[in-house]
Amino acid sequence: MKLLDTIQKDVVRRDLLAGSHEQAIQQLIRVLVERGKLPAADEERAVLALLKREALARTNIGNGVACPHAKVPFVKDFLGALGVLRDGIQYSGEGTPVQVVFLFLSPEWDATGHLALMSVVAALAKDVRFLFRLTKSRNEEEVIAHLRSALDALFGPGSE
Q: Quick check: 46 and 32 in contact, CB under 8 A?
């Protein structure tokens, strides 16, 4: 599973306006619905699955990055969205405010692919130069260009 197969320009929100992690999750799920990636009938249960996962352990992973994710029975393929918040939000009441939110829904049967996506995001979260460029992006095209460049630097051209 390649990150750029899941996160494409149409599911990126450069100026996500959220005041809480719950709002960020709701808004990014709404993006998936609006783009036809997730049926509207599954919107509420997708949000609930992600919030349930957050209740177990918050998914902020450091350096202003969070990765809410859940394995669910109602998706056949990996779904993802990316939101960049200008001002950031307190995600767990500790640490740096979150400005970058990678959100994923994974088929419940594909634990390997799910873990692979999480490990790629964890590697990206360590690259503070990438994160700075991402938060300064002017539009969704620049977000994807910075993401592609960071992935190429970490894993080699075309690998992720």
A: yes
Q: Which residue has the tokens 């690259």?
A: 127
Is the pLDDT at 144 greater than 90? The verdict is yes
CATH number of 3-155, picked from 3.90.1150.10, 3.40.50.300, 3.30.70.120, 3.40.930.10: 3.40.930.10
Q: Which residues pair with 73 in a beta bridge?
A: none
SS3 state of residue 155: helix
- Phi, psi at 70, each rounded to 5°: -155, 145
Helix, strand, coil fractions of the chain, as percent rounded to 5: 50, 20, 30
Phi, then psi, of 147 in degrees rounded to 5: -65, -45
**Closest to 65 measured CA to CA, from 23, 98, 92, 97:** 98
Q: Are 159 and 19 spatial neighbours (Cβ–Cβ below 8 Å)?
A: no
pLDDT digits (tens, 9 = 90+) for 66-91: 999 999 999 999 999 999 998 888 87
Integer Cα distance of 64 and 42 in angstroms: 29
